[in-house]
Structures are given as structure tokens and as C-alpha cells.
Design a protein that fits this description.
The chain contains 12 helices and 7 strands. It folds into 2 domains: 3-85, no CATH class; 183-338, Heat Shock Protein 90 (2-Layer Sandwich), CATH 3.30.565.10. With 339 residues, the chain is α+β, with helices and mostly antiparallel strands. It has helices at 3-9, 11-30, 35-73, 90-144, 151-173, 187-197, 199-204, 222-238, 272-275, 285-289, 298-309, 333-338, and strands at residues 183-186, 208-211, 217-220, 247-254, 258-265, 312-318, 322-330. The longest helix has 55 residues, at 90-144. The strands form 2 sheets. A 5-stranded mixed beta sheet has the order 2-4-5-7-6. Helix 2 packs antiparallel against helix 3 (35-73), helix 5 (151-173) crosses helix 11 (298-309) and helix 8 (222-238) packs antiparallel against helix 11 (298-309). Helices cover 60% and strands 13% of the residues.
Length: 339
């Protein structure tokens, strides 16, 4: 709270005082009051007026300065009311009451919106589960009657399944803690399942699926990790180069305090200018603008899920050469002792 702005706001009071003081002087002169009395009364009048003007300023200054500084310091500015001391002046009480009513109204609206969002999420989850039943039936029929379904039709069904899963896991990732279960999982089992799920597409694109020694136990949720790995494999397939020796290599580095899963491909890679944004929501980058259909959501969801599970995910790439994705699993020694 600045003194200059405060005085400007009270300019009407200053002008009114000066006018009244001018009339007072005229009365003094009309009655031929002695100069010493005029000077003494003038001094007392100005001193009294300055006190009346400045005492409220100093009373209000701390409150408003605290209000502004707390708003800047808080991540959630609407909680500022909880940080303020009780104001000792009437205007502050009015402001406090107004903030309280605003907060009350906002909280009520937020509650209503959250209820609507929760209802919508539950509906989407239910709808996805309903859609997955006929989809799974179609996939099963296509596998059992391969003479009636060509490879392109089967691949389109596979992609449709992937997109439905993407929507499901995106909705669930908002409340992931309600849906995952951390336990020891064999990486080899997850990698095998993802390979089988994408086998037809890799055969169609003539991509070699090379898996090293991956029989390592990690603490994770198998279902969520399978989805994360599936998103990475799908990107490797989508952004392959038109060469004869395309591959996806999967390996594991086991260290004292962590286990690192590495997924490497020799596809078109990612431009250095895009690397920092590959995990951003809806970001498709240069590769997405070059005609390859992409939602830009897969890696965003994977990043969020890794964060919820306590894993780290990083990408290293050289454009037109290779891409490596690292998923790091921390080792929990306390868990090892108790198991």
C-alpha cells in the first residue's frame, strides 16, 4: 500500500480541509484574532488533520500489504483468506466478509463441477467397457476366420482397440491411485505380452522385435506398465524408416539401486527441438506434421502414469538415426526385507 496512492485517494478530504481552513482564517481575520493564536490554532489543526489522515493509513497498510504478498506467495491464491489476521478496521471487515462469500460460492461451484466430471468419467469408463466387448469379439472372429479378414482389416481393429485403451487409461490416470496395485512383476512377462499384442503390425511393417535378457523383477503395476510399454512400441512402429533392417530392441540394465528398461528403435527419430516437448499433452511435433496420424496423448499419459507409479521415463534421440526410451524402476530395499 503506497502513501502516494493513499493520499491521492483521499484528495477530496485534503481539499475539503483546506477550504474549511480558509474560511476559518477569514473568521479569524474578521474578528482580529492575534497572530500567535492563529498560528497556534493552525498548527493544531494541521497536526490533527495529518493524524486523522495517517493513522488509518498505517492501520490498513499492514493488512493490505499482507494480503498482496500472501496472494503472490500462494500457489492457490483463493486460500489467502486463511492466512490473514483479523482486520481491525471496518473496510477490512467488509473485504474479509466479501472474500468469504466469494470463496464459499467458488467452492460450491467447484463441488458441482467435480461431481459432473466424476459422473462423466464414470460414464466414459462404462461406455469403453461396453465398446470393448464387441471389439474383442470382432478381433476373435478375425483371428478364427483369417480367410475372410485381410491383414489391413485386422490392423485397423488393432488400432481401434489401442485408441479405446488410450481413452480408458487417460480417464483412469486422473485417479490412478484407485486403480493400480504395486507388486513384484517379471519384466519378461510384460514384454512378451506387448510383443504378442503388436506382432501382426510388426510383421506387416517388417520390424524385428529383439529382446535381450529381461528376466528382472521390478515393483510396478503390470497392467499399467503394459500400457506404457505398448504406447512406446506403437510409436516405434508408427515412426519406422523405410529400410530393410528395421528393429525394436528391448534390454535391461540392472544396477544397485535401480533397474532400467531400455526400448530402442532405428526409426526416423525425433528432432532435438521437439525432445523437450514429447511428453506434453497433445504434442505431435515435426513427425506428427509430416502426415503420420497421431493424437499426441500416448507419451503424455505414459509420463503421468510413470509419475504415479514412482518410475522415471526419459527419451534420447538423434533425428533420422535412433530413439531410446528409458524407464527407471527404483529398488525398494525395505520391501525386499519384508517380502
Amino acid at each position: 500500500m503506497k502513501i502516494g496512492a493513499y493520499l491521492k485517494d483521499n484528495l477530496d478530504k485534503v481539499l475539503l480541509f483546506l477550504i474549511c481552513y480558509g474560511f476559518n482564517l477569514l473568521i479569524f481575520f474578521a474578528f482580529k484574532v492575534e497572530k500567535q493564536v492563529i498560528c497556534a490554532s493552525s498548527f493544531l489543526a494541521f497536526f490533527y488533520f495529518i493524524l486523522i489522515l495517517l493513522i488509518p493509513y498505517f492501520r490498513k497498510k499492514k493488512f493490505y500489504n499482507d494480503l498482496l504478498s500472501n496472494i503472490k506467495a500462494l500457489d492457490k491464491s483463493y486460500l489467502v483468506l486463511e492466512t490473514l489476521a483479523k482486520p481491525e478496521f471496518y473496510e477490512g471487515e467488509l473485504l474479509e466478509q466479501a472474500l468469504y462469500e466469494i470463496n464459499k460460492s467458488m467452492n460450491e461451484n467447484v463441488r458441482i463441477i467435480e461431481e459432473h466430471m466424476q459422473d462423466f468419467k464414470e460414464y466414459i469408463e462404462m461406455w469403453i467397457h461396453e465398446v470393448k466387448i464387441p471389439l474383442s469379439t470382432l478381433v476373435l472372429i478375425s483371428n478364427n476366420h483369417q480367410d475372410k479378414f485381410d491383414k489391413k482389416t485386422k490392423l485397423q481393429l488393432k488400432r481401434l482397440e489401442d485408441y479405446v485403451d488410450e481413452v480408458l487409461y487417460y480417464v483412469r490416470s486422473e485417479n490412478a491411485e484407485k486403480d493400480y496395485l504395486i507388486k513384484e512383476i517379471d519384466l519378461a512377462e510384460i514384454i512378451k505380452n506387448v510383443g504378442l499384442k503388436n506382432m501382426d503390425e510388426m510383421l506387416e511393417e517388417k520390424i524385428n522385435y529383439i529382446v535381450g535378457d529381461v528376466h528382472y523383477q521390478v515393483l510396478t503395476d503390470g497392467k499399467w506398465l503394459e500400457f506404457i510399454l505398448g504406447q512406446i512400441i506403437n510409436n516405434s512402429i508408427k515412426y519406422k524408416k523405410n529400410i530393410n533392417n528395421s528393429y525394436i530392441k528391448i534390454s535391461v540394465q540392472d544396477k544397485d539401486e535401480k533397474t532400467i528398461l531400455i526400448i530402442e528403435d532405428n526409426g526416423i527419430g525425433i528432432k532435438s527441438s521437439d525432445l523437450k516437448q514429447v511428453f506434453d499433452k497433445s504434442f505431435t511435433g515435426e513427425n506428427g506434421r509430416n502426415g503420420r496420424i497421431s493424437t499426441g496423448m500416448g507419451l503424455y499419459i505414459a509420463k503421468n502414469m510413470c509419475k504415479k507409479l514412482g518410475h522415471k521415463i526419459n527419451i534420447e534421440s538423434v533425428y533420422n538415426e535412433y530413439t531410446k526410451v528409458y524407464i527407471t524402476f527404483a529398488k525398494n530395499k525395505y520391501y525386499d526385507v519384508l517380502k
